[in-house]
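Hey, I was hoping to borrow your eyes for a little while. I've dropped the whole record in just underneath, so have a look:

——
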Amino acid sequence: MDYLKNISLVLVFILSVSFVILHHGWANYDQTKVLDFESVITESTYENPHAIAKMEYQGEPWTVVLAPASRMTARGLSAEMIKKGTAVRVVAYPHKKEKGEMRAERIYVDDEKYELR
């Protein structure tokens, strides 16, 4: 019985550590470099762990990491609102190492502001 309990504890520990390692959070984004721009979404996915929008910034394609879908839904930002062809304003931070990736702090759709953190 103690053997099974120990195995269970080890599995819980391993899963917990793997989630922490896999979750990238804000540490990988340079919060000293604020990118504030308008663009049109060329592609989007609305799913966990994070919704993603693809758009151009300064003539280059970028991947914009948004909030988890559940958080966006709770704040009134639906999948329909960030579909392909939607004009948005984004305030974001570039990834420290991955060229062409940024993490959005907020997004404006039809001049309505949605906080994503």
In short: Residues 29-115 form a domain with the OB fold (Dihydrolipoamide Acetyltransferase, E2P) fold (CATH 2.40.50.1010).
